[in-house]
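Glutamine--tRNA ligase: structure, please.
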Amino acid sequence: MSEDKKSLNFLEQIIEEDLANGLDQSKLRFRFPPEPNGYLHIGHTKAIGISFGLGEKYNAPVNLRFDDTNPAKEEQEYVDAIKEDITWLGYKWANELYSSDYFQILFDWAVNMIKEGKAYVDSQSSEAMAEQKGTPTQPGVDGPYRNRSVEENLDLFMRMKNGEFEEGEHILRAKIDMQHPNMLMRDPIMYRVLKKHHHRTGNDWCVYPMYDWTHGESDYIEQISHSLCSLEFKPHRELYDWFKEQVYTYAKDKYPMLPKQREFARLNLSYTIMSKRKLLKLVEDGIVNGWDDPRMPTISGLRRRGYTPAAIRKFVETAGVAKRDNIIDVALLEFCIREDLNKKAPRVMAVLDPLKVVITNYPEDKVEWLEAENNPEDASAGFRKIPFSREIYIEKEDFKEEASNKFFRLKLGGEVRLKNAYIIKADHVVKDSNGNITEVHCTYSEDTERSIKGTLHWVSIKHAIKAEVREYDRLFLDEAPDSHDDKDFMEFINPNSLNIIEAFVEPSLADAKVGEQFQFQRLGYFNVDNDSKTGALVFNKTVGLRDSWAKQKPKQNNAQNQQKPQNNRPAIEQIKSYGKKYDRMKEEQQNKAKAEIQALAKDVDYKDLEPLFGTSVKKTGTRIITMITLGVLLENGLEKNDAIHDFINKALEDKNQLLVAEAKAIG
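Here you go.
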């Protein structure tokens, strides 16, 4: 299917059907209606993307309406944060509205319903009302106040509004049917007494409308054509329709169009909590440092961690619009940010766990400023100068005294290339009294044309800048931390979700500004945190260069996994199995497969991969999965040789855009 003609999702099909049946396109209106009782999270991005996306597709207005009916939990702070998040994602709303704008008209409509015998004041305890309501299999029974006179109901409701009663003394209920099969239709509450200060209306009101009454009527007042909400509201649709039909009888002249409610599946993410109440608990209990902690799934937390609007919008688009709830692997979100940052993030060098290297045949007082490419994905990014001197830092894990042929890094007697610099050979080590290696003494060679398997990043000790690096891991160890009936979600907190490191970065980062993003070569993507100051840099790790979680994922001890046979085939054989179908997969399947290939690639030896370079041009899928695997080996230190250069160059000339894109990523 061509890229410019994608199939319609089921919501678009509904709208197209309505247009075909006579709905004027100029009447299309959508809304995003958050409750200002917390910060928006990644789950909300789907609802945001759907409503604003449809607005963009049909050139229709989208209202941002705050359903602010509960002053006990709502704050201006949340309103401001929600507006900031939506703006940051790149969306523009037509009108900024509040359900509180409609408090008077909603109250007047409720009075009309009382006069028509469709609403009444109930004065029972909540326990008594719950008992009378019945169960899904047992009908409810009428309460003792259901048949109060219109006059008494009007009197009590006005006195509720005037503050004569305390909270819990009286409520206003719709008079529908206590035996209705849908329990939501068994005389639902419309108003309750709340003597709380409202963030917009102050102390003007002592009664506040319930969500089910407010939400649909606000849609109706705004003449929303399609009220789109998540699946948990599907049972509410019948009540939504009943309420709007009642008010239509005395408001149709001013508001001629009745909204249509339709539901879509929520966006659920693995290893993630989506409940605002539970997210608030993490904040209040000090598990995280506020709503914008980079470990939080809030949009503000993702922004602070270094996620981009483009990556989040791509993630929502790839996850798609579904009719049934499902859980999206968080690896897809991480894949989307990697893809985005790979194109735009400047490459720099940083060492997080330093090991001192002394180049014994390099002059002690000599400093060379070498040229380094800023981003091979962006020809306009240019070059920068980096200093090289006798003493440098490399990562501790990049050196072993003895290692196998699969270790493409530095070992005694072995050679590696220093990125953008020389080839060095490890001659001997210096150890402390406990036998720990403190220095590696090397010699360098100016013959940089030789083919060397390994390439390491480094920083000059004399010029290195200290920086605080905050490495983040997933906040929960369980894929669905709030799905266990017998355990509290807090039991699955990852105690190692934050690791603070004193690192060393190259001097070009001295003036890095808050929010700027970089690829620390061979380590991952990082951005400058809000806490960063001149002379005290702080970086957040956004995401690694590949999915490292797949191998660490705790095995679920359940019957299903116990019965699943272990795959003992070599990693290269498992990767090759993707080749026949990779180029024919849908985008979401490709993203998942790519993450799995990258995880397997860590166990692949170059000698097993090189024979695939000669794959027939017709076998595009195999060439793509070979390119993905090669990318991981290169990131792990494999040096490019003539065979690799030839393979990449041939791919760049291919007609298949998937193959070309993978080749560009490592070219």
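Notes: The first strand starts at residue 30 and ends at 32.
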